[in-house]
Design goal:
There is one protein chain. The protein has two domains: 8-223, P-loop containing nucleotide triphosphate hydrolases (Rossmann fold); 227-296, Alpha-Beta Plaits (2-Layer Sandwich). Helices cover 33% and strands 28% of the residues. It is of the alpha/beta class and 314 residues long. The strands form three sheets. The chain has a six-stranded mixed beta sheet with strand order 5-6-7-3-8-9, sandwiched between helices. It has a four-stranded antiparallel beta sheet with strand order 11-12-10-13, with helices on both faces. A three-stranded antiparallel beta sheet has the order 2-1-4, covered by helices on one side.
């Protein structure tokens, strides 16, 4: 018997968009199932925001088709506005309004949804209910933006870089809120350039670079696909010139080598063989290490393996 087909909350086929000579989205095909959190992971300028703005109906594509909840912006715009929630990369609120007034305004846009007080409680802003927006911290404004996105009790939620610019504590508070929304059964489309955020929140991740999907799968599948067990990072002091990456890549158990700003990264399959081989190689050149650390591979390492650069290079 064939497995039942899971309905898609979002379907993107052959999506393309250019701005002048710049190709922002170059033939993207991807879908998100009901209740799934799909992450679009890539550096700034990769095409994530343009893709999500097309899905949100804010930007018109040059080519391709987008369906949301089985509907399209061309034929079902009014219904879609009632059924999706959007948190933009940066939301401009009226500074003079209070948190409660802001949410009453956004709640008025929808036929049904949670009460204003339920929204305030959902994002843990009870103590700031009467505070003006101008007095909120960055993390509190992001939580307010998330509450506004939930005002219509959406089936499909778009979160575009929801934690950019936040300190680590505020970022983790937003993560907790997104995790709760995910467990409630909503479909979430999340763009980010934080690999830890994608690993923690997303069921599947599409790694995007130069407007194209480089890889798609669960975080575990993507990490396993590069075929390495560990990453070794090291640096050294002194006047020794840069090491030959081809020589490092040829060391026993090493699958690849990368260097950036004096920090060397080796992708290795056998840590117990690679580290001694590295020590022997460096000792032969009279090099003393100033840093050495190892870690299990992450989505950052997947991006490096696919593109030869780190997520934050741009």
């Amino acid at each position: 018997m064939e497995a039942p087909v899971t309905p898609l909350s979002l379907s993107i086929r052959g999506l393309r968009k250019s701005f002048g000579n710049v190709v922002a989205v170059d033939g993207i095909d991807v879908g998100a199932s009901n209740g799934e959190c799909l992450g679009l992971l890539g550096p700034n300028g990769a095409g994530k925001t343009t893709t999500i703005e097309i899905c949100e109906g804010l930007t018109r594509p040059d080519a391709g088709e987008v369906e949301l909840l089985g509907l399209s912006w061309r034929h079902n715009a009014d219904e879609l506005r009632q059924r999706i929630g959007i948190q933009l990369q940066e939301t401009q609120f009226s500074d003079k309004l209070t948190v409660e007034e802001t949410l009453r305004l956004f709640r008025s846009f929808y036929r049904s949804g949670p009460s204003v007080f339920d929204l305030i409680a959902a994002v843990r802003l009870e103590e700031k209910r009467a505070a003006r927006v101008m007095g909120l911290s960055g993390g509190q404004k992001q939580r307010l933006a998330l509450a506004c996105a939930l005002a219509g009790n959406p089936d499909l939620l778009f979160l575009d870089e929801p934690t950019t610019g936040l300190d680590p504590q505020a970022r983790r508070q937003v993560w907790e809120l997104v995790a709760q929304l995910k467990h409630s059964g909503r479909t979430i489309i999340l763009t980010t350039h934080y690999m830890e955020e994608a690993e923690r929140l997303c069921d599947r991740v599409a790694i995007i670079d130069h407007g194209r999907i480089m890889a798609l799968g669960t975080p575990r599948e993507l990490i396993a696909s590069i075929g390495i067990g560990h990453v070794v990072e090291f640096a050294f002091n002194g006047v020794t010139g840069p090491l030959e990456l081809s020589t490092l890549a040829a060391l026993e158990g090493v699958r690849g080598a990368h260097a950036e700003n004096g920090l060397y990264r080796l992708s290795v399959s056998e840590l117990h063989r690679s580290v001694p081989a590295l020590f022997e190689h460096l000792a032969g050149q009279g090099i003393e290490l100033s840093e050495l650390r190892t870690h299990s591979p992450t989505l950052e390492d997947v991006f490096v393996a696919l593109t030869g650069r780190r997520l934050r290079d741009e």
